[in-house]
Amino acid sequence: MKKLLIIIISYTSLVSGGAIAQSNFPMTEGGFMTTSWEIDALTYEDEWNYGYTREGSTTFIDDINGDGVSDLFTLSPLASTNGHYNNGCIQAVDPRNGNIIWEVSGTSYSEYLGEGITFIDDINGDTVSDLYLVSTEYASTNGLYSNGYFKAINGSNGNILWEIHGTSDYERLGDGITFIDDIDGDGVGEILSAVFSASTNGLQGNGYIKVLNGLDGSIIWQVHGTSDNEYLGEGITFIDDINGDAVSDMLSPSPSASTNGFTTNGCVTAIDPINGTILWQVHGTSDNERLGDGITFIDDIDGDGVGEMLSASPSASTNGLSYNGCIKVIDPTNGSIILQVHGTNNYERLGEEIAFFEDITSDGVSELYSMSMMEDPYNYYETIINIKVIDPINGTILWQVDGTSDREYWWATAEIAFFGDLNSDGVSDIYHASAYASTNGFYQNGYIKVLDGSDGNILWEIHGTSDYEYLGEGITFIDDINGDAVSDILSPSAYASTNGFHQNGYIKVLNSLDGSILWQVHGTSDNEHLGEGITFIDDINGDGVGEILSAASSASTNGFYQNGCIRVIDPIHGTILWQVDGTSDNEYLGAGITFIDDINGDAVSDILSPSPHAYTNGLSSNGCIRVIDPIHGTILWQVDG
Fold first, then answer.
1. What is the pTM of this model?
2. Which of 49, 254, 354, 507 is the most exposed place for a label (fewest CB within 10 A)?
């Protein structure tokens, strides 16, 4: 009989909270749960840190005790052990019996050991994968404050293979970690630590980049920012070899940098990753330019055989305008500016959203598509969309479309996508939607438009017909269902209010050639939220087309409040094939669903649906787990807390 092993981690606030439990679920209808073992979780306290919480986690690693079974690794960054508070702890656990194979705890207050773990290949030759352990920004060691550290841990026994600590306050060694190729020939990849907020060498916020030997932790090279607020290392990316040593070079964009007397002008630095030599550096030339923000790599336009680098700066104020935005094309071989295009209106924010479009001008280079929000800062409600297609070789505006109503962009990011050629003119066309747009006298009704890629003319458009319809939110392109050989458009609006209901939601399928509605299905009760949590699953009704699953965990149906609801819908006709509703208030059925191997022998993957907040059997928030047959919606088994 096939069995599914499920590890349940339950963390509870304050002391002795939670347990780790391994359970075997026989995969038959009416199945049951038997607990094989459990161990108490370490003492810890939940706390908020700058808007996020640190939570424990688990993962499986190599077999480290030779029993032929992969062992379990638990990370508890909030653990308080050995008299310390929130020092953190990591454990290797035998999943067969729960025995702790080894354990390592942090050695200082608020160290949060276990928050930054990376599993690596074996570096000490014992055939077991090892670990890199990174400190958080709060780790303070050797009498310093927030200096940070980096350690390599033996995966077999938890021993420290090597460690390196920051040597100054606020160095935050270990922050901004990237793993790179071996550069010293010892066969082990290196470790790059880029800490843009570090203050070193008597400067403030200059930042630094260090490369550590992955085998022993020694510093191969390091480079520090040379001015206050340079923020070197704010971003790291790798580009083609530009200095002829056959090794990809490193680019560090620092859009928050304030240099050369400007404020937040930004800068970009190119570095040789072999030895840390700075190849070139270019700085923004106006306040708030944020040069280096929105870096994109494009085709070669100057004929040197190397693709160019594009930096979009929508917040730049240039040519005497305010927040008009600018786009610069930079030669990555030497940092020179090849081309720059500036917005022509106040608050245009040119470059806010960019994409690359096919070559309209037949010059061998893809065109640049820019969509931006033109917002009047003195009237928050007056916001329209500006779309431009730009030739990146000479900066020519090939075509431009401006929005025609206020609030077209308000509180939402409009979406774009590139269709195939719908009107047979040889150029792909452009889909554009803004779910929060207010048009035709409605408020946040939303719209969908398709633009001719050649000249920007509107091929078709459809607008929502009621307030808060949010037409265009969560758009998905699906296989052709009406036989015209063009993919169609699935448009769900989970919070739309239609047919006299409140937030019942709907799903529509549109013909992408003309925007006509092929079918639509509406929720049939208040707060049903039909269209929430869209997923596509295997074909279950034998028509050769996969089905649509809508998991609306916040739905309120059958007289319950936020019980949740899961539906499966035939995408060809819009027929609801089956529906399962939660059976208690605050159950949130459908939150976090997962597809698992087939357990009932029908050759279709089944649905695992956890509801950790469910109230069942007279208990409060005890939670439950269900496995559902996606063919019929039958509940194969359910386990309650």
1. 0.68
2. 49
Q: Is 178 helix (H, G, I), strand (E, B) or coil?
A: strand
DSSP-derived pairing of the beta strands 72-76 and 57-60: antiparallel
User: Beta strand pairing status for 337-342 and 326-330?
Assistant: antiparallel
500: left (phi over 0), alpha (psi -120 to 50) or beta: left
The single-letter DSSP state of residue 312 is E
Where are the extended beta strands (E) located within 391-527?
397-402, 415-418, 430-434, 447-451, 458-463, 476-478, 488-493, 506-510, 517-522
φ/ψ of 131, rounded to 5, equals -135, 145
Among candidates 434, 499, 443, which has minimal Cα distance to 467?
443
Distance CA 89, CA 17 (A): 15
Element (DSSP H or E) covering residue 208 = strand 208-212
Tokens of 339: 């081309």
Contacts of 206 (CB under 8 A, 6+ apart): 198, 199, 200, 224, 225, 226, 227, 228, 229, 230, 231, 232
Q: What is the DSSP letter of 564?
A: B
From CA 638, how far away is CA 582, in angstroms rounded?
A: 12
Strand-pair partners of 239? 249
CB atoms within 10 A of CB 319: 11
Residue 500 to residue 611: CA distance in whole angstroms: 30
Let me know the angle formed at the C-alpha of 363 by 361 and 364, rounded to the nearest 5 degrees: 115
Instruction: Determine how β-strand 353-357 pairs with β-strand 367-375.
Output: antiparallel
Q: What angle do CA 39, 44, 49 make, to 5 degrees?
A: 140
Number of Cβ within 10 Å of residue 378's Cβ equals 7
Strands 278-283 and 267-271: antiparallel
pLDDT-based confidence at residue 520 (cuts at 50, 70, 90): very high
Residue 612 exposed, middle or buried by CB count within 10 Å (0-12, 13-18, 19+): middle
Residue type (1 letter), 159: N
Distances (CA, A) of 79 to 55, 71, 115, 522, 534: 10, 21, 11, 48, 37
Query: Across residues 59-79, what is the average pLDDT?
Result: 82
Tens of pLDDT, residues 269-328: 999 999 999 999 999 998 889 999 878 888 888 888 888 899 999 889 999 998 889 999
Give which of 283, 346, 269, 354 is closest to 315, Cα–Cα.
Answer: 346
Is 531 in contact with 508 (CB distance < 8 Å)?
no
* 91's tokens: 């454990």
Task: Tokens for 439, please give them.
Answer: 């048009």
